[in-house]
Structures are given as structure tokens and as C-alpha cells.
């Protein structure tokens, strides 16, 4: 699985793995892929530094990258308290009622919510970057829109490639104009924030729209067959996120959540605004059903919704309240049926890829080649 | 593009083309694919007989099939008038208001609506079958659920293969239990009735679920690259519907509609209940927006919605009222940018397929083979 981009980055397989877990990121790169650590949960620079140190000690000198959430547009002089004040009381009451209905316990006194809006704010992302540029990262990915011009310039000064996620050819062209190096075409079936265009249609459209920029296909990819299909569609690599959630190196801190992921079928996800205010694919739960119910108050726009539900989500996760317990994940969750090591996932990907290439060669009448 | 199934049917390319136009169906088979005529619009048996005669005269002895809409469950003793009586007056008024707002003229006195519920009713489908079995069709496809057991048996007696559309692995297994021969896995991105699982995920799931039955991939396929990707995912062929709508052999009777299709991007469709009461992907228009607007009355369940809007849709189409003018079509509409002959579409498909296979062979390090 070698493309121009994988050769440029010096990796064996054109498989990019996005993960919030340092152990998974390191294992992806050690297995011959390209690990990308999601930084959104790091609010303290020292925590990020500690985990990047860990990666450096365990990645065997292989290349890796970092994924931040950095808006191109600044919102000046707005504090988290200002944003908090914009949340209607009726919505707060709906959160309290829904949690009470399911008997979700309170957090202990002084216990912080695990997820805060702060990771989404520009000053936090910039602090993350100050840390990240102390390390030999090879890729900086931005999960929401194009990164600011000065960040792109700073990355390029250090020979760090910049990637950005796009759900349409129009978004992809905007990224190209912003000077980024790689577009991640994120299809409808992907976990997390997605648009409505499915990978089968989106991948070749984005490839054509930003030619000659390399494109990574994201969404619906968890087997070697799907890797082969995505590369057939013109991508220079694949960007996998969901598949790592049930690897042995992942640390979800919740056996119940791991169990739900292993049990879920491809039809058990929903593209809902419940988590952040923008449509994001996640496990369908009674929590997402409550927010998507026309009889409920509905969701608030980003970033209000994320702030509104942050503590509730922490409580649901901490106490593993199963009917409400979810996580962002793509439709490929139906293929996540056993806990495997990252290396075992790679072994399956490469074997499945070779078999799929054999198959399409037979169909093309090139049977001597398969 | 040869698979076990295409060899069994004696066609050169494993490309199945669904179309309501006899001239397109004949051209697909003449070009080396397998043309499938949609029968839902034929309410008079003689009309179907006339068009099948035309196909026989123009298809050059190539194989072809027929697509009917036949529910497995009978609804006994319910007439169209009974169904009409179940439509609330408020919904009828909403139709009148929406048409009036856009100045849509009335049909002439005695002029029939072009689309009626009758094509969806079992007695009509059975009459269609009585006609069809007089012709040497090789495939009978059912667009909605599994066909009744006696119809499957009747087809098999005549060595006619039976296909059924499925939007999930569970649906596909039900078809298999009903004794059908081919499953069409219809992804989220497809035109017409679709589920929520995208082709990239659905195709391999259905292939695995019904093994060893052959699966055709539908949804998001309009280029040779996409054909190659679908076959890589394990399909024994592809099922294309949208791509033929803008061929020179198609007869939409509406230059304005053809123009809208040629201009639309992949983001200009919507999966809406506006047409039939079940989610069907179609061009997004002010008509679908009105039905999908939370401030409106909302859609009725199938078959009420189809009956409610039948005359309105005929009027919109006849008078080409552009803001309301739509048609079922998949996300691949973004690739339909010029009118081409069916043969030209096939030439592009086969050339693109070969290039995609070359590309994936290079990535797999089999460069001597590309």
C-alpha cells in the first residue's frame, strides 16, 4: 500500500490512523502506518508534553502527527463564561431531567468534567501547537475548517505537512487556497463531524477538485477491501479513526462502552447534533434520541451544545449509564466485533487489501497477475 | 468486467442498468451490459407489451430484465378510493397552496395524472408479470421487499433469475430466505428508496451476509473508478440507475429537468419522504423543502403520500415549474455534466475501470501488471 504520499512521509502503508490514545498512535506508526494523535482533549500543555514524550519513547523513530481543532476565524474577547451565559435555562433543565430519568449520579465535589469547550478555543489550540512544534511531528491536521495562515506558515517553516478535513469539493478547494498540503475527504459514513456526501461519491470529487494535492479517504473504511476501494477511487491514502477504538492498546476507561461498540451494527449509529451542535456521527443512544426527538427542545448551535452537555457526558461515561452511553464512531462499527491489537488490525488490512486487488484483477481479466 | 454472474447471464460487462426508458434498456444491453426496464409506470398491459415488443426489435438478441414493484404482503379488498379517503384535508390544502404559490397551472380537463398509485398495487404488478413472462426476460427485479413465493417459483420455472433490493444485511438475508437469486445492495447515496448505510459499508456487509448469493452494488456509481471500487468490495456487478437519465436515449420529456440534472452537484439531492412516504433520494427542490419543513404538515405514510402528490407532480413536470421540478436521482448526479449516448457512458466506464485497476496495481506494488 505505497503511494507518492506514503513514500514522501517514509511509511510502509498509506494508512493514516487518527486516535486520542498515545499508545494507539505509536502502535500505528510501529506497524508501518502513520499515527495521528488527537489533541482536543489536552487542556493542560504539560499533559500533551507528557504524552508526546511517551510517544517519542515508544514509536521507534517512526513518523507521526498531531490533530488539533483550530478555527480560521478568531472570536476575540469571548470567554467561556460569556458562552455559558448564552445557554437557555430550558435546555439546562432538559439535561437535568434526562439525567435524572436515568438515575445518573453527580460527579464528586471538585471533580472536573472530562470534556470542556476549552480544547476547541483558539488560545488552547495555539498552546498545543507551541508544545507540538518542540517535537519532530511530520503532520499537523486540523479537524474543523482551514487552519489560520500563520499556523500553516509556521508548520511549513518546520517542514511539517498540513492536512484539513473536508466534507465537500467546495470545502476542499477552500483548504487548497489556504495553502494546506493534504485534504482528508470525510464521507457521510464517517465517525465524528461529517457532511452528507458518501465516500464513494466524495472521494473522487475531492481528488479531482484539488488535483494535484494528495487526498486521504475517510469514512466507511475498516477492512483491506475498503482500503483497496478507497485507493481505487483516487485517494493517496486512507484515514481511519473508528477502527482503533476497540484495539487492545485503546483505553476507553469503560468496559461497557467497549462492549457496546463490539455489539453495534452498521445501522446503530446516527448523525446527530447532540454532542457539539454540528452533525457528528456517533452511537445511537437514548441520549441522542432525546436530543433528536421533535418533542424535545432540540440542540443548540456550536459551541453552546458542547458546553451544555460536557458535564452530562462525563457523568454518563464515568458511571457507564448504558442506555445513554455513546461515542463518536462511524458506520464501520459493524465490523468491530472483537478486540484486536493494532498490529493485528494492520495484518488484516494488508491481507484484505491484497485479496481485494487479486479479485479486481480477475474481474479485469488479468488473472495471470493475481 | 467479467464476473461469475455476468458470464452466467452471457453479458460482456457486469454492469446492470435500471431505466424506465425502453430505448435506454436496449442500448445498455447492446453496449454489453444488462438492461433492466422499470415497469412501475405501466398501468395498461398493452403499453408494457408495446414497449417490450420494441425492445425485442432493437436489442439485437441480447439479454435483458424487468423491474416491478410487488409487495410480499397482500392488502386484500382495499381500493384506491379507500386509500384516497384516508388523506387528511389539511394535507390536500397544503398541496393546493404550494402549487398556487408557484403558479402551477391545472391539467386539462380529462387529462390523466402521469403517475398513479396503481403501479404499486399487487394486481397491477401481477398483470405486468403475465405480460412479461410472454417475453424471454432473463431477470425479474423487485424494488420493494421480497417478491411473493409464487412469483419466485413462476420465475424459476421459466429460468428467470429473481433480484431484490436491500438497504441492510438483515433485509438481504430475508430476501435470501425468500429464495431470490441476486441481492441489489442499495446504499444511502443511491437515487430512489434508500436506507442510511453507505455503499462503502453496505456492499461488503451484504456480500458476507448472503454468501454465496451474488450481490450487485447500487448507489454512488457512475464512473469506471466507482465500478472498480464496488467490485473490489466484493460485488459481482454494479446496478446503475441515475447515470442513464441524461443519456441521449433517455426521454424525460422535459428539457428543464435535464438541465437541472446536468447542473446539479452531489450536494443537491435530499433523502426525502415527499415523493412516496418512504425516504427516497431525489433532487432537492422547493417542493421537497416544503414537505421537509418542520413548519409544514409533514409527509404521510406510504402509499398515502404518493397518492396525495401524484397529480401535483404531473402538473409540475408538465409545465416545468423549475423551482419545484425534481426527480429521483442519486448523489452521482454531480458527475452527470453532459448528455452522452449510452454507448459513450459504457466506453467511459470501461476505460475508467481499466485505469483504476492500473492504479491500484501500482499501489499494491504490482507495477509490471498495470
From TrEMBL, chains A, B:
InterPro entries: Aldolase_TIM, NMO
Ribonucleoprotein listed as a keyword: no
Keywords: Dioxygenase, Flavoprotein, FMN, Monooxygenase, Oxidoreductase
A Pfam short name: NMO
Keyword DNA repair: no
Gene Ontology molecular functions: dioxygenase activity; nitronate monooxygenase activity
Protein name according to UniProt: Monooxygenase
Origin organism lineage: Bacteria, Bacillati, Actinomycetota, Actinomycetes, Kitasatosporales
Amino acid at each position: 500500500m505505497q503511494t507518492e504520499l506514503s513514500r514522501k512521509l517514509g511509511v510502509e502503508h498509506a494508512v493514516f490512523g487518527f486516535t486520542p490514545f498515545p499508545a494507539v498512535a505509536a502502535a500505528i506508526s510501529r506497524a508501518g502506518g502513520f499515527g495521528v494523535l488527537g489533541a482536543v482533549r489536552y487542556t493542560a500543555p504539560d499533559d500533551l508534553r507528557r504524552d508526546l514524550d511517551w510517544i517519542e519513547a515508544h514509536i521507534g523513530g517512526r513518523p507521526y502527527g498531531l490533530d488539533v481543532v483550530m478555527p480560521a476565524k478568531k472570536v476575540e474577547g469571548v470567554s467561556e463564561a460569556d458562552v455559558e451565559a448564552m445557554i437557555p435555562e430550558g435546555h439546562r433543565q432538559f439535561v437535568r431531567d434526562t439525567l435524572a430519568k436515568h438515575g445518573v449520579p453527580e460527579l464528586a465535589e471538585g471533580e472536573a468534567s472530562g470534556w470542556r469547550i476549552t480544547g476547541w478555543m483558539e488560545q488552547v489550540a495555539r498552546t498545543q501547537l507551541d508544545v507540538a512544534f518542540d517535537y519532530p511531528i511530520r503532520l499537523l491536521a486540523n479537524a474543523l475548517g482551514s487552519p489560520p495562515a500563520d499556523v500553516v506558515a509556521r508548520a511549513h517553516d518546520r517542514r511539517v505537512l498540513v492536512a484539513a478535513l473536508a466534507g465537500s469539493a467546495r470545502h476542499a478547494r477552500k483548504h487548497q487556497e489556504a495553502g494546506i498540503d493534504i485534504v482528508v475527504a470525510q464521507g457521510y459514513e464517517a465517525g465524528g463531524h461529517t457532511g452528507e456526501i458518501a465516500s464513494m461519491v466524495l472521494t473522487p470529487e475531492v481528488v479531482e477538485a484539488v488535483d494535484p494535492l494528495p487526498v486521504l479517504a475517510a469514512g466507511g473504511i475498516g477492512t483491506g477491501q475498503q482500503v483497496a476501494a478507497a485507493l481505487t477511487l483516487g485517494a493517496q491514502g486512507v484515514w481511519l479513526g473508528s477502527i482503533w477504538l476497540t484495539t487492545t492498546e485503546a483505553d476507553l476507561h469503560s468496559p461497557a462502552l467497549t462492549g457496546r461498540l463490539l455489539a453495534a451494527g452498521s445501522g446503530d449509529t446516527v448523525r446527530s447534533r447532540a454532542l457539539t451542535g454540528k452533525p457528528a456521527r456517533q452511537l445511537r443512544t437514548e441520549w441522542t434520541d432525546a436530543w433528536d426527538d421533535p418533542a424535545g427542545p432540540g440542540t443548540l448551535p456550536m459551541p453552546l451544545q458542547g458546553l451544555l452537555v460536557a458535564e452530562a457526558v462525563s457523568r454518563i461515561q464515568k458511571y457507564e449509564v448504558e442506555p445513554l452511553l455513546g461515542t463518536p464512531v462511524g458506520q464501520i462499527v459493524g465490523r468491530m466485533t472483537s478486540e484486536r491489537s493494532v498490529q493485528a488490525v494492520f495484518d488484516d488490512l494488508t491481507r484484505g487489501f491484497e485479496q481485494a486487488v487479486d479479485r479486481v484483477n480477475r474481474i479485469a481479466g488479468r488473472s495471470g497477475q493475481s
